[in-house]
Specification:
alpha/beta, Rossmann fold, 2 domains, 9-stranded mixed sheet, 6-stranded parallel sheet, 18 helices, binds adenosine-5'-diphosphate, binds alpha-D-glucopyranose
Length: about 475
């Protein structure tokens, strides 16, 4: 069975978030199950630099405003899986963020850039671009690849089936209606039953309406997006397609994320946690934090946005400091949140530290060195950092929402007695609720003694490897 994954980012070549981690590890997990898997990526600088053995397969164009587009084929650096790359210098060879320009605004031609991605997937599926390979299933990820199913259904003779995965419904890929002239989609698709969304067009909606099956990245988020609270205006579409919608939990690449990690100060294991203490001390020293604090070290590794509840955390910070605890933050995002964390660090230099920016190897040091990882999200389709934290024996403190609710078992009397607890869970997206759970976590840290270590070890034993999830995706492909 031949599967083509279509996406805008992939670890370790281009990454702005969890989507890249998923693309870096799901296709290889499917290949290990014996499927013939390839990926299709835009020719962003990181992709062109990182793919090996890249050679041209087909010269296309001019299309989508680009004079020259060449479909190339190479191999992913780690897994060696075949990767198609759309080399369109005018559209993709731009430094910085894949979606936004240096001014922080979306590139003004994003509809063409990602329209081309979906269009190329459809033509590859039709066997028109590579005489040697065409997929049976096109698996498109998020709005960036949302037009792939829409272009595929335009060709009724085409026997390819499509799966569309929602990684984050909040990013709907919305463009002015006039953009459709650049996309070559027929007028009949521009209705509320098609890709029209409140007088505009939505690439996300295209993926939802025209794909054969829809998945999202946790069972709980699959339920949530059918409600107005989490549906981002697309909950009606989600309910209409309910029979074709399912949630398949993301996995973790434990070869990259594990406490034997070469990126951390001192590797450790489930049977010998001594190295974890050394990692904590090294992290405190790296950031000039006191090594004498009486409370635990909380960490954040996240986009600093309202989705991630970072404003709630800033509001609850006094509670955390009252407990004698410490906070380190690695992230970037909204200017006011960045400023808020910077200010907090400047007035509490012994107990709060912040690194504004993106640093992959620092994120490993945070995972290993912290006692508790905070993920107080307003919504969270799956969330990967809590899964990474578990493996490092760093207890996640999360809001009961989306994939966080599916993956963290609360430390309460019942779960402790049943040997199930792996972290701390709170309900309301509000300062007092988070503050109260931070207080409880600090108490458990201080007085839990052996119980804390037991929860840590249970956390480290959790298995969120890709094997199970890849099996679910395979089942879904075969059901088509
Ligand atoms: P999302 O995709 O919504 O941002 P996830 O939890 O699924 O959330 O994935 C986030 C990914 O990005 C994780 O691999 C996390 O470690 C990484 N990450 C987030 N912010 C940073 C940062 N500032 N530096 C390094 N890695 C980061
Ligand atoms: C999105 C979501 C996140 C999820 C990731 C990978 O970025 O916000 O919850 O883990 O995609 O699926």
């Amino acid at each position: 069975m031949r599967i083509l994954h279509v996406a805008s980012e992939i670890f370790p070549l281009v990454k702005t978030g969890g989507l890249a981690d998923v693309l870096g590890s799901l296709p290889p997990a499917l290949a290990r199950r014996g499927l013939d898997v390839r990926v299709l990526l835009p020719g962003l600088p990181g992709v062109l630099d990182g793919i090996t053995e890249l050679r041209p397969v087909m010269r296309i164009g001019p299309v989508f405003g680009a004079a020259a587009v060449t479909l190339c084929l190479g191999r992913l650096p780690d897994s060696k899986l075949p990767a198609y790359v759309l080399d369109a210098p005018f559209l993709f060879r731009r430094d910085g963020n894949p979606y936004t320009g240096p001014d922080g605004h979306d590139w003004s031609d994003n509809h063409r850039r990602f329209g081309l991605l979906g269009w190329a997937a459809a033509h590859l599926a039709a066997g028109e671009l590579d005489p040697d390979w065409a997929p049976d299933v096109v698996h498109a990820h998020d709005w960036h690849a949302g037009l792939a199913p829409a272009y595929i259904v335009q060709n009724p003779g085409l026997k390819v089936t499509t799966v569309f995965t929602i990684h984050n419904l909040a990013f709907r890929g919305i463009f002015p209606m006039e953009c459709h002239y650049d996309l070559g989609l027929p007028m009949r698709k521009l209705t509320p039953h098609g890709i029209e969304f409140h007088g505009k067009i939505s690439f996300m909606k295209a993926g939802l309406v025209y794909s054969d099956k829809i998945t999202t990245v946790s069972p709980n988020y699959a339920r949530e997006i059918c409600t107005p609270e989490f549906g981002c205006g697309l909950d009606g579409v989600m309910r209409d397609r309910g029979a074709d919608l399912s949630g398949i939990l993301n996995g973790v690449d434990y070869a990259v994320w594990n406490p034997g990690d070469a990126k951390i100060a001192k590797p450790y294991s489930i049977d010998n946690l001594a190295g974890k203490k050394a990692c904590k001390r090294a992290l405190q020293l790296e950031f000039g934090l006191s090594t004498e604090a009486r409370g635990p070290l909380f960490a954040v590794v996240s986009r600093l946005t309202s989705q991630k509840g970072m404003d709630i955390l800033l509001a609850a910070l006094p509670e955390l400091l009252r407990e004698g605890a410490q906070l380190i933050v690695l992230g970037s995002g909204d200017g006011d949140l960045e400023a808020g964390f910077r200010y907090a660090a400047s007035v509490n230099p012994d107990n709060v530290a912040v690194y504004i920016g993106y640093d992959e190897s620092m994120s490993h040091r945070f995972m290993a060195g912290a006692d508790i990882l905070l993920v107080p999200s307003r919504f969270e389709p799956c969330g990967l950092t809590q899964l990474y934290a578990l493996r490092y024996g760093t207890l996640p403190l999360v809001r009961r929402v989306g994939g966080l609710a599916d993956t963290v078992v609360d430390v309460n009397d019942e779960n402790l007695a049943a040997d199930r607890a792996t972290g701390f869970v709170f309900e309301d997206a509000a300062r007092h609720a988070l503050g109260a759970r931070i207080h409880d976590a600090c108490e458990f840290y201080r007085y839990g003694g052996a119980a804390w270590t037991k929860v840590q070890q249970r956390a480290m034993r959790q298995d969120f490897s890709w094997d199970d999830s890849a099996a679910h995706y395979e089942q879904l492909y075969r059901s088509l």
